[in-house]
């Protein structure tokens, strides 16, 4: 019988009838007046089992079974005892069967072999043809409190190995029974047993009988007694199920509520911090939306970017990563500022790839370069003042890692970021992954041992949120947001700038300085053509001071040449291990 709930339901029906039946001396409704097998009437091949149960005041059930085999028993007979059955959605009910012994009708011991698993114990009796076998054993866990009553519930037969024509059960206790119920048939059946009664008007003991129990079928009984009849011996064990493991309780719901508050609060804070960029754009961007020039020595206009920001710094400020385009733009910037010269080499063969010769000019002022710019300049020229772009190898790859790290440090040194964005992003990603894995482990452990696995999911969700949100963690400082806004204004100007904003004699110089920023803003081809036109107008024979082409090259080819150079250089940088993941 599957737990107390079924027994209580059957008892409810039985109690109504028994309350009048006991007074009038009649049997229960399931007590048909049929002739039962008598000991001396057992036919050959028939089996009769009489089970006598006595409940003591401590709640222990003492059992004696007398199994009679008509015409002699088989060599072996197996009797199964139920040890575990479902109790409620979260628990199983346990029964303990102990002290099992067997003897023949003549008092000689009968060998018993026990095989036990999680739910049942099978006792195989070496009958050896004997006509009678008597079993003695004790059962714990059959008594539980139900309201103000005490209820004895037990599967008296967990299964036989052969059909038993009649099984009788008599239950005695320190007090009189108040109600009873039974079920028999396939496991967890709710079909009432053949008969049951409480012994007439005296109602001293409970009687049950089931005819023709086939192999594997069970026989369950429930008897209700006054509350003080015996001690409760109920034994429960938590049963695992996905539903019970992830039960939503006030505690788990409370944890999720707390998590929701924390996540929403963190999201609001993050939105506020990130919105600082938007607020700065609205108030500061217009200040830089103009030609970035100022009067220099002798009244000549000279280039002056907003906040003196360099191309590589702009790229890192925008996307918070020092990537391929930032390094490429910095190389071109060093060229237009006079620290190196780029010379396009003639094709060695008709279909050979283009190559460029880089020359370090040794211009005064290298010591004033930013640290990452000096490192990059040294990386480009490891063996002397000249190097081919195609010859940049492993040494260049190794030194680029230092360039990238120094560029990140530059962001902090300028107070545009409170901490290095790459390291902060990496740290938060690590925290998120660890929290997710820890949450998964906690969830598994909670699912195995408790009903609070739902709580562990909170850690998993939080960890996943931190992992996904790690890329948004390196928020700029207030100063960084202001510079970012000025950069946005500068970009807006470059997208709509007019050539005649700059005097003709200064266009090559100023537009050359624009070009590295145009690389960052993905507008290089437009400004390369403008620069080529300005150069052709200013000195058609001389060309550009920082970029030279082969013998038959003209400024009309410059736009295609500089585009090819930036793509080739980006490819060289992308092939390095440090930048491969940023492609």
From TrEMBL:
Highest taxon in the source lineage: Bacteria
Keywords: Membrane, Signal, Transmembrane, Transmembrane helix
Spans traversing the lipid bilayer: 245-273, 428-448, 454-473
Pfam families hit by this protein: DUF2207_C
Predicted membrane protein YciQ-like C-terminal domain: residues covered: 303-529
Signal peptide (residue range): 1-24
Name the UniProt record assigns to this protein: Predicted membrane protein YciQ-like C-terminal domain-containing protein
């Amino acid at each position: 019988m599957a737990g107390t709930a079924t027994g209580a339901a059957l008892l409810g029906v039985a109690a109504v009838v028994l309350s009048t039946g006991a007074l009038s001396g009649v049997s229960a409704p399931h007590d048909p007046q049929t002739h039962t097998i008598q000991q001396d009437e057992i036919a050959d091949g028939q089996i009769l089992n009489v089970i006598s149960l006595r409940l003591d005041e401590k709640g222990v059930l003492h059992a004696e079974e007398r199994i009679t085999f008509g015409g002699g028993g088989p060599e072996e007979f197996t009797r199964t005892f139920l040890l575990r059955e479902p109790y409620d959605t979260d628990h199983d009910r346990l029964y303990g069967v102990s002290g099992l012994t067997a003897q023949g009708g003549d008092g000689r011991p009968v060998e018993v072999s026990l095989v036990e698993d999680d739910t049942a114990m099978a006792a195989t009796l070496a009958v050896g043809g004997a006509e009678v076998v008597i079993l003695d054993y004790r059962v714990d866990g059959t008594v539980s409190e139900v309201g103000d009553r005490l209820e004895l519930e037990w599967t008296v037969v967990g299964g036989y190995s052969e059909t038993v024509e009649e099984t009788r059960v008599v239950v005695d206790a320190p007090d009189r029974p108040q109600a009873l119920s039974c079920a028999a048939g396939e496991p967890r059946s709710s079909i009432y047993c053949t008969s049951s009664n409480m012994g007439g008007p005296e109602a001293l003991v409970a009687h049950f009988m089931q005819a023709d129990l086939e192999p594997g079928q069970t026989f369950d009984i429930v008897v209700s007694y006054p509350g003080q009849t015996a001690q409760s011996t109920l034994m429960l064990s938590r049963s695992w199920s996905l539903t019970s493991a992830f039960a939503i309780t006030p505690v788990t719901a409370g944890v999720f509520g707390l998590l929701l508050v924390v996540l929403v609060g963190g999201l609001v804070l993050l939105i506020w911090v990130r919105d600082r960029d938007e607020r700065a754009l609205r108030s500061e961007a217009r200040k830089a939306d103009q030609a970035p020039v100022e009067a220099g020595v002798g009244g000549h206009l000279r280039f002056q970017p907003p906040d003196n920001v360099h191309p590589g710094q702009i790229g890192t400020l925008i996307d918070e990563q020092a990537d391929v385009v930032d390094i490429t733009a910095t190389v071109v910037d060093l060229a237009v500022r006079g620290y190196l010269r780029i010379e396009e080499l003639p094709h060695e063969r008709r279909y050979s790839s283009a190559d460029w010769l880089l020359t370090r000019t040794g211009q005064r002022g290298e010591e004033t370069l930013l640290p990452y710019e000096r490192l990059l300049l040294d990386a480009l020229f490891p063996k002397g003042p000249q190097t081919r772009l195609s010859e940049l190898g492993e040494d260049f790859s190794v030194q680029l890692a230092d360039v990238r790290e120094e560029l990140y440090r530059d962001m902090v040194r300028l107070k545009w970021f409170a901490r290095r964005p790459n390291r902060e992003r990496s740290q938060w990603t690590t925290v998120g992954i660890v929290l997710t894995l820890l949450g998964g482990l906690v969830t598994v452990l909670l699912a195995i041992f408790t009903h609070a696995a739902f709580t562990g999911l909170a850690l998993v969700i939080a960890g996943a949120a931190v992992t996904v949100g790690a890329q948004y963690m390196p928020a700029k400082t207030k100063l960084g947001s202001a510079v970012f806004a000025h950069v946005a204004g500068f970009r807006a100007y470059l997208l709509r700038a007019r050539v005649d904003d700059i005097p003709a004699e200064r266009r090559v110089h100023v537009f050359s300085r624009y070009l590295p920023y145009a690389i960052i803003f993905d507008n290089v081809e437009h400004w390369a053509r403008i620069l080529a036109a300005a150069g052709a107008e200013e000195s058609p024979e001389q060309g550009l001071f920082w970029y030279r082409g082969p013998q038959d090259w003209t400024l009309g080819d410059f736009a295609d040449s500089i585009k090819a150079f930036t793509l080739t250089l980006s490819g060289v940088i992308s092939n390095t291990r440090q930048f491969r993941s940023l492609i």
